[in-house]
Design a protein that fits this description.
The protein has a domain of 85 residues: Potassium Channel Kv1.1, Chain A, CATH 3.30.710. The chain has a three-stranded mixed β-sheet with strand order 2-1-3. Strands 4-5 form a two-stranded antiparallel ribbon. It has 52 helices and five strands. The chain is 67% helix and 2% strand. Strand 1 and strand 2 form a beta hairpin. The chain starts with a helix and ends with a helix. With 952 residues, it is mainly alpha-helical.
Length: 952
């Protein structure tokens, strides 16, 4: 039937009708009058009388004129254009992509170790740019925190603090303002405005509370001081020995105090000028009011302006600039900066700061703009300031234009709207601020990528060529793509062919060259690309669509399943949903559509012509409806079979029925983390926090947000605060989880056991209790209480926590019961839908040949798992096949530069006497984790041996 359906759609020649750019657009189909079968179908199906067409044993099918036939459904989606191979293109990466990633990491580490303390922040920023392209966002955030830790000037602190906050997306939390901080000085807006270098204090609690108390005390003190000064003014009139006349007002002053404000005043009052001998000086033409001059006189005595109104302080700032009163200007600057706390105030004072050359005031305003991103860029005045060359020059004059600033602004703009003029202009300013080679490479390459997305191919080629000239060889991919888009396919092929010839081949090189060739050559290039880098999605997608075009839909789905088994992405889920619709497997298609929308709620399907939510609505009419209770049963089944995509889809369905359920959002975030979708997981966690109906629940979700962004102590504090309000499973679990990660010693382990036992006494469902039992068992293993661990794992299995098989196998192995351990892992393999980790773990409980077989299967299912490569390399080394062992590790490093793999390869190089390569690998590993004890020890040993071998 499936082939007949596909043939029917092909015979309708709807593919030909889809070659236009906006044919059958969704808005046209809903709002327009006539149209193709897709338009009529959507109008019919989305009406309230639409019903499911096929009969089902679990519910009654209704026969009516509105009944939708499954063939019509398939034809309707054909009207949007089935996927075609010539429409597929690999994505050009927007980040820095060195030709030799390991060499680059090693070089950065060497320069980091050798640079001055004040330069470390700049080095960490370069490291950020390199890590941006890695799948683990924690590496980027950690470098960003290190850059902030070592920042010296206020400008860098302001930008980096705002960037750290942006990465946590606190703007999405209800009730949190832009100027709030999480409790650490590293993100505290007040700390960012303090100049000086003190990396030790950056991890201290923020100064907010202490600062407020200090300000309150100071205000009382200054009020007394000011009142005393004012009361003394008339009594001690004889102390005044001169006057400034402004209009009809005469401001009595002390000549010495005014002269002490600056050299110009000193010259005026004590120099060889006529004014120096006068008691009354006409000051009317100096653009300051009498009230302002009285304030200046008071400042000359008190050195404070806490009692002055802001407009008076602005006058004093102008006077300070005119007469070079540096001390008074600094106090004015700091005072005005302390007034900036929201967008309105920042917009009001920003221009004064620029005109008055007030560095701190501009920094404070800049801080608000950056903390309000991306919304602040929608303000035309803010956008004009940052985007225009004039605005950049004005910022530069006062010391607030930098590559760092425009790097942050452009990244935010690209996330907000990649193709916008704002994005282009910010990237242009970023390029103008670039001084180092890597900065130019990044700015020009990203400009090329944006221009390519905007279909401005000539400009794209120009910027890619500039990036290559700056040293970014990967930008040759952009040049080739731009040439191809301009009709020069052969030139693009020649360019990529020379790249393959001139450099060590990588998967992305063959992937890109495949774009410009046909037939067997294309197939071979795609196969080589997958072999060198199995994480590239384009080759799988191309092969799958090729099979679909040949009516081999089963094979097409199997091909796309290969990558979905270890790397979940919206485009691959969409492709599988497309195939499943053709096969009339609407339940499977609905599952994939729901999972896709969990990853990206705004995803547009079918060439960007159909909103994902509309597809879900359409497909929902063709599957059996489920109640919330049915969904819970399905969730248990999916969870126990380790079907994370299926679980995501069920949770999405449950949220559609009960959108305000924070607990479901939290479950969603856990599943997304398991699928390495960190960005989507954090979005779900923030939504869970916003939808929490109780204070204690909200605190738990805030704790998880803090933990996932590197603030462990603050996360524990949130858990403890939640427990003080109400004892709950999630609060105890959070505290136990964070403590187990933070303090691995035996005393802490015993405390973690107590916390998990307390969690299990609190109400929760089986899904979470199964996880808690499994975690508790793991801690029991750590403290050598194996029988207790067995009990916990068994109880977890009794409530369908299937992953407990792995923990139980570990316990049997520790008890020297390898057969039982092997059997437990076999049970997990049989139950789990995604079982690469199960094959990997089972390999530890069998002989070498069986282990090699299991690890081969693990690599086939999930090539991102690095243990199989390390094991095979170790076996090869044991067999004295050193070259093959190094090659095995190099294969993994080429697409996943893993710390453990780099460390092992360094050790192998050391054992072979290749000290140069060993040092390089150690430095690359330490660039990923500078405190890795084993690598540090090996690095020091190899360095010492290298020194000993140097000629005397």
């Amino acid at each position: 039937m499936q082939h007949n359906i596909f043939t029917t759609m092909r015979s309708l020649k709807m593919m030909e009708g889809c070659k236009g750019t906006q044919v059958y657009a969704l808005n046209q189909s809903i709002d327009g009058g006539g149209g193709g079968v897709g338009e009529k179908f959507l109008q019919n199906l989305l009406s309230k009388n639409s019903i499911r067409s096929r009969s089902n044993s679990n519910f009654q099918a209704v026969q009516s004129k509105d009944e939708v036939n499954s063939v019509v459904l398939a034809e309707a989606f054909a009207s949007y254009g089935l996927p075609k191979t010539d429409q597929l293109e690999p994505q050009i990466e927007f980040c820095l992509k060195p030709m030799n990633f390991v060499e680059t990491l090693a070089d950065v580490y060497r320069r980091m170790e050798g640079c001055a303390q004040f330069d470390k922040s700049r080095m960490y920023l370069e490291q950020c740019a390199i890590f941006r392209g890695l799948p683990d966002p924690k590496l980027f955030r950690r470098c960003l925190m290190s850059a902030r830790l070592h920042a010296v000037d206020v400008h860098s602190k302001v930008v980096l603090s705002a960037w750290l906050r942006f990465e946590r997306r606190e703007d999405e939390l209800i009730g949190v303002s832009a100027m709030d901080c999480c409790g650490r000085s590293m993100e505290c807006p007040g700390s960012a405005l303090l100049a000086g270098y003190n990396p030790e204090s950056a991890t201290d609690p923020c100064i907010c509370d202490r600062g407020m108390r200090k300000d309150e005390d100071t205000e009382i003190y200054m009020d007394e001081e000011c009142s005393t000064s004012l009361s003394r003014g008339d009594e001690e009139d004889e102390d005044f020995d001169m006057s400034f006349c402004i209009g009809d007002d005469e401001i009595r002053c002390r000549r010495f105090n005014i002269a002490s404000l600056s050299r110009p005043f000193e010259a005026m009052l004590y120099g060889s000028f006529i004014d120096s001998r006068r008691e009354k000086i006409n000051f009317s033409k100096n653009e300051i009011s009498a009230k302002g001059m009285k304030a200046a006189e008071m400042f000359s005595r008190t050195k404070s302006m806490d009692s002055f109104d802001p407009d008076i302080v602005l006058e004093l700032l102008s006077l300070a600039n005119k007469f070079c009163c540096d001390g008074m200007k600094s106090v004015c600057d700091a005072y005005l900066a302390s007034l900036v706390f929201d967008m309105d105030t920042a917009m009001l004072l920003f221009e004064y700061g620029l005109e008055g050359n007030a560095y701190l005031l501009v920094a404070a305003c800049l801080q608000v703009f950056l903390r309000e991103l991306p919304n602040s860029m929608h303000n035309p005045n803010v956008s004009r300031l940052f985007c225009s060359s004039e605005g950049k020059d004005r910022l530069a004059y006062i010391g607030h234009a930098s590559f760092l600033l425009y790097y942050f602004l452009s990244q935010s703009a690209m996330e907000d709207d990649l193709k916008s003029n704002t994005t282009v202009m910010l990237l242009e300013r970023m390029g103008e601020c670039a001084s180092e080679s890597w900065q130019k490479q990044l700015a020009f390459h990203q400009l090329g990528c944006v221009m390519l997305e905007r279909k401005e191919y000539k400009d794209a080629q120009k910027w890619f060529e500039a990036a290559v000239e700056a040293g970014h060889v990967y930008s040759l991919v952009g040049i080739a793509r731009s040439k191809y888009k301009r009709g020069h396919m052969y030139k693009a092929y020649k360019l990529m062919n020379s790249l393959v010839s001139d450099y060590t081949p990588s998967g992305w090189m063959y992937q890109e060259r495949s774009m410009y060739c046909q037939g067997k050559e294309k197939t071979m290039d795609l196969s080589t690309a997958t072999e060198l880098d199995p994480t590239l999605s384009y080759p799988y997608k191309y092969r799958a669509v090729s099979m679909a075009e040949e009516n081999r839909l089963g094979r097409a789905i199997s091909e796309i399943n290969r990558i979905l088994g270890f790397k979940i992405s919206p485009d691959c889920l969409e492709l599988r949903a497309w195939f499943l619709i053709v096969l009339e497997d609407y339940e499977g298609a609905l599952r994939d559509a729901r999972a896709l929308l969990t990853l990206n709620p705004r995803y547009m399907m079918f060439h960007g012509k159909l909103q994902g939510e509309h597809l879900v609505e359409i497909l929902s009419h063709n599957v059996q409806p489920c109640s919330q209770a049915d969904c819970w049963m399905q969730l248990y089944d999916r969870w126990s079979s380790v079907d994370d995509i299926g679980s995501l889809a069920v949770v999405h369905h449950m949220l559609a029925n009960d959108p305000g359920k924070s607990l479901l959002r939290f479950r969603q975030s856990l599943l997304l983390l398991r699928l390495n979708s960190h960005k989507a997981a954090m979005r779900s966690l923030r939504e869970a926090r916003n939808q929490a109906t109780s204070e204690h629940e909200r605190l738990v979700y805030e704790g998880w947000i803090l933990y996932d962004t590197g603030y462990r102590e603050e996360a524990i504090a949130k858990a403890e605060e939640s427990i003080s309000i109400q004892r709950s499973f999630e609060a105890f679990f959070l505290k136990a989880y964070v403590l187990s990660e933070t303090s691995p010693d035996s005393e802490s382990s015993l405390y973690v056991i107590q916390l998990l036992e307390e969690a299990l006494r609190c109400p929760s469902d089986g899904l979470r209790k199964g996880q808690a039992l499994s975690n508790l068992a793991s801690v029991y293993v750590d403290v050598d209480k194996l029988d207790n661990a067995i009990d916990c794992y068994t109880n977890a299995l009794n409530i369908k926590h299937t992953r407990a098989h792995q923990g139980l196998a570990r316990v049997y192995h520790l008890k020297d019961q390898r057969k039982l351990a092997y059997d437990e892992m076999t049970k997990l393999i049989e139950k789990a839908k995604y079982n690469a980790s199960a094959y990997e773990k089972r390999s530890e409980y069998c002989d070498r040949e069986m282990a090699k077989s299991d690890l081969g299967m693990a690599t086939k299912l999930d090539p991102l798992r690095t243990y199989p490569y390390r094991y095979r390399a170790a076996v090869l080394m044991d067999d004295h096949k050193e070259t093959e062992a190094i090659a095995e590790l190099t294969k993994a490093i080429s697409f996943k530069p893993d710390l453990q793999v780099l460390h092992l390869r360094a050790a192998f190089h050391d054992s072979m006497g290749d000290l140069t390569s060993a040092i390089r690998d150690c430095e690359a590993a330490l660039c990923l984790e500078s405190r890795h004890a084993d690598t540090l020890e090996l690095y020091q040993k190899v360095q010492q041996r290298a020194k000993e071998q140097l000629p005397t």
